[in-house]
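Lab intake sheet, docking and co-folding queue.

SAMPLE TYPE: protein with bound small molecule
LIGAND NAME: S-adenosylmethionine
LIGAND FORMAT: SMILES
REQUESTED OUTPUT: full 3D complex as C-alpha cells
PRIORITY: normal
SUBMITTED BY: R.K., bench team

The fields below were copied directly from the construct record.
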Amino acid sequence: MDRLAKLSDLLIAENASQNLVAKATIPIVWQRHIADSAQLLELVPATQAPWLDLGSGAGFPGLVIAAMRPDLEVILVESRKRRVDWLERAREGLALENCRVAGCRLEDVERFDAGTISARAFAPLDRLLGLAARFSTKTTDWVLPKGRSAAQEVQGLPKNRRKMFHVEQSQTDPDAGVVVGRGQWSAKP
Ligand SMILES: C[S@@+](CC[C@H](N)C(=O)[O-])C[C@H]1O[C@@H](n2cnc3c(N)ncnc32)[C@H](O)[C@@H]1O
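RESULT FIELD (auto-filled):
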C-alpha cells in the first residue's frame, strides 16, 4: 500500500507536466487506474513471470503489478521517450528492482517467453495479439482490460481461434470487460 500511495503521488505530480492520464481521472486515480490494474492479479491467481506489459504509458497496469508483486519480474514496453523517462523515474522512486523498462517499440523487443501478457488501452485486440504473438507460449496467460468493447473484440477474432479467450467483468467498471485467456497466439492464421 505504501508503494501504491507513492505511485499515486508521483503520478499526480508528473501529470502536471505531461499528459499521462486524463486530468478528469486524477481525483479518482485509485479506482480508475490503481484498482483497475490491481484487479488483474485476481484473474491470474497462479501468476507466471515474466509479466510483459505492452504500451505501459503512465504505468498501468505494469507499475501496479510490479509494486504489488516484488517476487515477479515485470517488463514494461513503451516507445514514447517522455513516458519511458517517467517509467524509469517511477521505477527508481518506488525501488522496484523486479521491474525493467524496454524503451522502444514492441516490434523491436528481443523475443522471450512471457509468463503473462497484459495491455491496457494499447491496440485493438486482433492487432495486439498479432504484435504480442511471438512472446506467447502454450502456457502464457493473457489479461487484457478492454473496456466496453471486450466481448465484441473477442467475437471479431477468427472463430476457430477465439476459444482460448473469455471475458471477465471488470471489478472497477461494471460496463467494462477484461479479456482473459491462456495459450499461444500465432500471428499467422
Ligand atoms: C493509450 S496509452 C495507454 C497507456 C497505459 N497502458 C494505460 O492504460 O494508461 C498507449 C501507450 O502505448 C504506447 N505504444 C503504442 N504503440 C506502441 C508500440 N508499438 N510499442 C511500444 N509502445 C507503444 C504509446 O506510446 C502509449 O503510451
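REVIEWER NOTE: The longest strand covers residues 141-147.
SIGN-OFF: pending second check by T.M.
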